[in-house]
Amino acid sequence: MTPLLDIQGLRGGYGNVEVLRGVDLQVQPGETVALLGSNGAGKTTLNNVICAIHSAWAGSIRFDGADLSRAHYTDVVKAGLIQVPEGRKIFPNLTVLENLALGSYGRARERRAQNLDKVLGIFPRLRERTSQLAGTMSGGEQQMLAIGRGLMAEPRLLILDEPSLGLSPLLVEEMFTLIGQLHTQGLAVLLVEQNVGQSLEIAERAYVLENGSIRFSGLPADLLGSDELRRAYLGL
User: Same structural domain for residues 126 and 29?
Assistant: First the structure.
């Protein structure tokens, strides 16, 4: 099967500092893949290079066969590669409804009404708060809004960067349940997380990123079954 996302030898960084050192990573259509690593491993940098927020120094990024290695970020969105960034990055002074509408600005604008109804069905709490300013909501509600905004663009692959960050244990459980539901609907997900246990429960494959390089790729069971890997990369 041809990967939906196929990254080969990706290098990138900031100024003269190299962060990504030849990353290879693939996501198949409809697959949930976990990308694990500690703070500073390069996970967010990788996300931003994939989505053309930062330029790749070398290597290739192919999405559904198309070369996006030098694409503009608007073309990445139009292709259906959508990121929900770390820290949510919602617009606090806009309403919930306005934030969601912005999700379809660059893609699926003509189906905004249908997708809005779908998103509000997934997140009933957002339906109750469509006129509320996003900045006045709780952290969990803001994370729902960020994911909902991403879904408004009809993603073919959704990159979730630390979706459980700052949430209570109960909301973390709810968030991972939601991600599992998105997978059952056929959506491909790249889950970038520090929450190792729950990420590996819902992922079909996993990568471990350390100092900008992939140190492990394979099945979650293989990662959890190796005492050496667990101690070295997961702190378990």
Answer: no
Report if pTM > 0.85.
Answer: yes
Task: Name every residue whose Cβ is closer than 8 Å to that of residue 5 and which is 6 or more positions away in sequence.
Answer: 25, 26, 27, 50, 61, 62, 63, 81, 157, 188, 190
* Per-residue pLDDT, 87: 82
d(CA 29, CA 203): 13
Q: What CATH number is associated with residue 229?
A: 3.40.50.300
3-state helix, strand and coil shares in percent for the chain, rounded to the nearest 5:
40, 25, 35
* 165 lies in the same domain as 218: yes
Amino acid at 58: A
Residue 76 and residue 105 in one domain = no
Sequence-separated (6 or more) residues with CB below 8 Å from residue 125? 141, 144
**Spatial contact of 202 and 183, defined as CB atoms under 8 Å apart:** yes
Q: What strand order describes the sheet that includes 17-27?
A: 17-27, 5-14, 58-63, 66-67
Task: For residue 167, tell me if it sits in a domain.
Answer: yes
Q: How confident is the model over 101-156, as pLDDT tens digits? A: 999 998 999 999 999 999 999 999 999 999 999 999 998 899 999 999 999 999 99
Clarify whether residues 18 and 116 are in a common domain. no
Residues 6+ apart with CB under 8 A from 231: none
Angle (CA) 73-80-146 rounded to 5° is: 80
**What is the C-alpha to C-alpha distance for residues 25 and 214, in angstroms, rounded to an integer?**
8
**Structural domain containing residue 117:** 91-153
